[in-house]
Write a structure and sequence with these properties.
Layout lengths: L7 H6 L5 H17 L16 E5 L6 E6 L12 H14 L7 H4 L3 H13 L4 E5 L2 H12 L5 E5 L4 H10 L2 E5 L4 H11 L6 E6 L1 E2 L4 E2 L2 H10 L3 E5 L14 H4 L8 E5 L9 E5 L1 H10 L1 H4 L6 H16 L1 H21 L2 E2 L6 E5 L3 H13 L2 E2 L1 E3 L10 E5 L6 H17 L7
Parallel strand pairs: 2-14, 4-5, 4-6, 6-9, 9-10
Antiparallel strand pairs: 1-2, 3-11, 7-8, 10-11, 12-13, 13-16, 15-16
Helix pairs in contact: 3-13, 5-13, 6-7, 8-9, 14-16
Bound molecules: pyridoxal-5'-phosphate.
The site of pyridoxal-5'-phosphate has 13 residues, from helix 6.
Length: about 425
């Protein structure tokens, strides 16, 4: 089996095979990838995820300390002492869980304080926690839209927005990536229809390292009386001078009807939220099914996330450092001749335009102490596979230079550099 070129999409769509046959073929591909020491997903790690990580190499099976550039731990908060301390205190006081939803089981003062602080951080009236960013998008979209309504989204939107739209039953329109004229075409198409129009866009495109140009989107939504949902999973805590997110970066803070965020990236933890008007949040508290028919985020997680918010607010230099590091990496990779995607985000996609080379570079980097992500279908469209490198505020100059020197060597070896 040619593991690096196996067509997973064709397998999934194959109408001639049963699901049992498909699973067996896929299982065989994974086992073959393992045998060829090319299975680059679910890699085994044996220590905390920081700027470095202990991970088990594929060739030798030995644990090695690596530079971590495959995590969304932008500010290095996963192991921050304030967060750990707050979590321990919360366990001692509150115990470990809520054993049910806040709707019925009680809403702690800790949850209430955190939601109020988040709302302020996002320039909104109110906020509601969800178990994850994924479920926040699902719960919000399905609570707002039904089959007589319209969901309008960028073609590169995150899966959670797409899935929310699908589950809602709304009619879906897709506009060309980052193309306001095409968004306007969609808005015009539905302008005469009575249903709700919801425009949804990633604030930072997670596989493309690109910050959405939100000004024209805000203006078009106003003009056509559409609601705007900005998925700021990767912006929250990482983008904008104060880490308020993509809206701050674009100068439109407080101008979206709905802002979604997650704690699984810059906050170093997990959980998600929706922020918006008080009326929206009260609606979601009672009709956002993925938030109400599920247990509340545990107090220890809320405490960790509240401590993260405090660090982000007290230390804007962390966000500044993140961007210095990412600007440096972008500049040097571009000088080497790599083709990069996006701009100004700490997510740096590296396009090699050859799947076997992508596998080769990610694998060899890993064996030599640099942990990168390999991105392929279903995260991105077939033919647009890429290496994804994420920068952290806590990467040292030594970490960055180690990664860059190795990537230069591998870029030459695999013929991945322009003009080389
Ligand atoms: C743009 C975007 N939206 C939503 C999510 C989901 O967030 P979470 O990890 O909290 O479920 C992610 C994370 O993968 C994301 O990148």
């Amino acid at each position: 089996v040619d593991v690096s070129n196996f067509d997973v999409k064709a397998l999934i769509q194959d109408q001639t095979k049963t699901i049992q046959e498909k699973m067996e073929i896929f299982d065989h591909v994974i086992e073959e990838a393992r045998r060829q020491k090319l299975y680059l997903f679910f890699r085994t790690t044996t220590g905390p995820s920081e700027n470095h990580i202990d991970a088990v190499t594929l060739e030798t099976g030995k644990t090695q300390n690596m530079v971590m550039m495959a995590s969304n731990n932008y500010l290095g908060l996963t192991t921050h002492p304030d967060l750990k301390e707050a979590t321990k205190k919360a366990i001692d006081y509150w115990g470990i869980g809520m054993a049910g939803p806040c709707t019925l089981n009680g809403n702690t003062t800790l949850h209430q304080e955190f939601e109020a602080r988040l709302a302020r951080f996002k320039g909104c009236e109110a906020a509601m926690l969800f178990p994850s960013g994924y479920s926040a998008n699902i719960g919000c979209i399905t609570a707002l839209l039904g089959k007589h309504d319209f969901f309008i989204g960028d073609e590169l939107n995150h899966a959670s927005l797409i899935d929310g739209a699908r589950y809602s039953g709304a009619k879906r329109l897709v506009y060309k990536h980052s193309d306001p004229a095409d968004l306007e075409r969609c808005l015009k198409e539905v302008a005469g229809s009575p249903g709700i129009k919801l425009v949804a866009v990633d604030g930072v495109f997670s596989m493309d390292g690109e910050i959405a140009d939100l000004q024209p989107i805000v203006a078009l939504c106003r003009q056509y009386k559409a609601l705007l949902l900005v998925d700021d999973a990767h912006g929250t805590g990482a983008i904008g001078k104060h880490g308020h997110g993509a809206m701050e970066y674009c100068g439109v803070e407080g101008q979206a009807d709905i802002v979604m965020g997650t704690f699984s990236k810059a906050f170093g933890c997990y959980g998600g939220f929706i922020a918006g008007s008080k009326a929206l949040i009260n609606w979601l508290r009672h009709f956002g099914r993925s938030g109400m028919f599920t247990a509340a985020v545990s107090p220890m997680v809320v405490a960790a996330c509240l401590a993260a918010l405090e660090v982000i607010e007290a230390q804007p230099e962390l966000v500044a450092r993140l961007h210095q590091n990412s600007d440096y990496v972008r500049r040097r990779l571009t000088e080497m001749g790599y083709e990069l995607g996006g701009k100004d985000a700490p997510i740096i996609p590296i396009f090699v335009r050859d799947r076997a080379k992508v596998y080769g570079i990610v694998k060899e980097a890993y064996e030599r102490g640099l942990f990168l992500s390999l991105i392929e279908y279903p995260a991105v469209a077939p033919g647009t596979e890429r290496i994804r490198l994420t920068v952290m505020a806590t990467h040292t100059q030594g970490d960055l230079d180690f990664a860059l020197n190795l990537l230069q060597e591998l870029g030459r070896k695999y013929g991945a550099l322009k003009g080389a």
